Amino acid sequence: MRLSAPRPSLEFHRPTPGEELIHFEHLKKSFGPKRVFDDLELSVNAGETLVVIGGSGTGKSVLLKCLIGLLYPDAGRILFQGQDVTRFREEDFFAVRRLVAMVFQGAALFDSLTVGENVAYPLREHFPELSPEELSQRVAEKLALVNLPGTEGMMPADLSGGMRKRVGLARAIATNPEIILWDEPTTGLDPVTTQSINAMINSMKEKLGCTSIVVTHDMVSAFAVGDRIAMLANRRIVQAGTPEEMRRSTVPEVRAFLDARRAELEPREVAS
């Protein structure tokens, strides 16, 4: 639900590593009779990779979509550098979406566009002043960054699942975002490709210094990339902590979630 409010002053600064960048405050969200969030609280610090875990249907992806205005919460606030985005109009999110990029679960590439055209798409929207030469250079740089140099002329249908994920990431980072949102980045991928995606998430933090929020139910990935892990269950965050703190957790929902995945987790960890 969009709230009527004075137009906000959209002034964002480059965050200092460690400072609170995003705060989900008393968030509530329902779809008809189904309650998804009930007084949800969660903070994200600049420069960290925060992994949100939870079972299917718990609202992990909904959390990301509320942050960038694809969905609106029913109550509560989402503070982005101190500004409440739940009160933004659609046009106000333009500034936010230049700073926040989302890598969708299925890569969400335009099948009728080439790889280069897919990566260039957000640049044409957010930076119309770029010349064709500057556009081509930026596209080439981002494709090289995700280890896909020279693929501009390929079509999405010619790509493997892992390559499509990489093109989706190249498109996401084309605008040099401060924050990358990863929606189930390893779902449906084989173990080798999953490992490469995990390495890519870590690489983006090292190369770009960006903040990442990763939603997943894959605990191998969660422990491989997360500086902190937050567990979403029973319509709220039941615990957030370092990977080691989560491994030792005695919170019933966390313990049950980890124990249910122990059989799949341990053999893959040994193999790696």
Identify the notable features of this structure and list them briefly.
272 residues; alpha/beta; Rossmann fold; six-stranded mixed sheet; four-stranded antiparallel sheet; 10 helices; 38% helix; globular; disordered N terminus; disordered C terminus
Can you give me a brief rundown of this structure?
With 272 residues, the chain is an alpha/beta fold. It has one domain: P-loop containing nucleotide triphosphate hydrolases (Rossmann fold, 3-Layer(aba) Sandwich).
Morphology call: globular
What is the CATH topology descriptor? Rossmann fold
| Count of helical regions | 10
Distance between the termini: 46 Å
Sketch the major β-sheet. Answer: 6 strands, mixed
Spatial arrangement of strands, main beta sheet = 6-7-8-3-9-10
Portion of residues in beta strands equals 15-25%
Q: Unreliable segments (pLDDT under 50, ≥5 consecutive)?
A: 1-8, 268-272
- Return the domain count: 1
Radius of gyration: 19 Å
Judging by the overall fold, what is the CATH architecture? 3-Layer(aba) Sandwich
Task: Tell me the series of helices and strands, N- to C-terminal.
Answer: EEEHEEHEHHHEHEHEEHHH
The helix-and-strand class reads alpha/beta
What is the overall pLDDT average?
86
CATH class: Alpha Beta
The CATH homologous superfamily is called P-loop containing nucleotide triphosphate hydrolases
Helix content: 25-40%
Describe this protein's structure:
The chain has about 270 residues and is of the alpha/beta class. The chain has a single domain, classed as P-loop containing nucleotide triphosphate hydrolases (Rossmann fold), CATH 3.40.50. About 40% of the residues lie in helices and about 25% in strands. The chain is built from ten helices and ten strands. It has helices spanning about 60-65, 95-100, 115-125, 130-145, 160-170, 190-210, 220-225, 245, 250-260, 260-270, and strands at about 20-30, 35-45, 50-55, 75-80, 85, 100-105, 180-185, 210-215, 230-235, 235-240. The strands form two sheets. It has a six-stranded mixed beta sheet with strand order 6-7-8-3-9-10, with helices on both faces. The termini are far apart. The relative contact order is 0.16.
